[in-house]
């Protein structure tokens, strides 16, 4: 019984893989606020100049201060410049 439990746990860990997240960095000189729409919920996140956050572990849509939106899968690097998101 114990051997089966350990084997199942190891199998689950090997299949799960690492969690991914999109990186968003504020490249502007002022604080910027982004809106994150993920899994049916909406949240806001303010970033100070130069600050980086990880978002969208399971994919999301991010709205930037200039009104543009970007769909992210969780593997991108995005920089905010002039209030807009730019893929790096």
Structure characterization notes:
The chain has 88 residues and is α+β, with helices and mostly antiparallel strands. The protein has one domain (19-87). Helix content is 17%, strand content 45%. The strands form two sheets. The protein has a four-stranded mixed β-sheet, with no helix packed on it. Strands 3-2-5-6 form a four-stranded antiparallel β-sheet, with no helix packed on it. A hairpin with a 5-residue loop joins strand 5 and strand 6 (69-72). The radius of gyration is 17 Å and the shape is globular.
Distance between the termini: 50 Å
Residue fraction in strands: over 45%
Count of helical regions: 1
Query: Number of folding domains?
Result: 1
Oligomer: single chain
Strand order of the largest sheet: 4-1-7-8
Principal-axis shape equals: globular
- Please tell me how large the radius of gyration is: 17 Å
Query: Can you give the helix content as a percent range?
Result: 10-25%
**Helix and strand string, N-terminal first?**
HEEEEEEEE
Largest sheet: 4 strands, mixed
Mean pLDDT: 84
Q: What structural category arises from helix and sheet content? A: alpha+beta
DSSP strand count? 8
Runs in which pLDDT lies below 50 for 5 or more consecutive residues are: 5-17
Summarize the structure.
The chain has one helix spanning 2-16, and strands at residues 22-26, 32-38, 41-47, 52-55, 60-63, 69-72, 77-81, 84-87. By secondary structure, it is of the alpha+beta class.
Features:
88 residues, alpha+beta, 4-stranded antiparallel beta sheet, 17% helix, 45% strand, globular
What is the strand and helix layout of this fold?
Blueprint: H1 2-16, E1 22-26, E2 32-38, E3 41-47, E4 52-55, E5 60-63, E6 69-72, E7 77-81, E8 84-87
Parallel strand pairs: 1-7
Antiparallel strand pairs: 1-4, 2-3, 2-5, 5-6, 7-8
């Amino acid at each position: 019984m114990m051997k089966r439990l350990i084997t199942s746990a190891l199998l689950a860990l090997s299949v799960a893989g690492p969690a991914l997240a999109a990186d968003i960095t504020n490249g502007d000189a002022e604080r910027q606020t982004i809106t994150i729409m993920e899994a049916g919920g909406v949240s806001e996140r303010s970033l100070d100049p130069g600050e980086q956050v990880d978002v969208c572990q399971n994919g999301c849509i991010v709205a930037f201060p200039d009104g543009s939106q970007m769909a992210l899968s969780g593997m991108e690097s995005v920089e905010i410049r002039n209030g807009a998101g730019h893929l790096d």
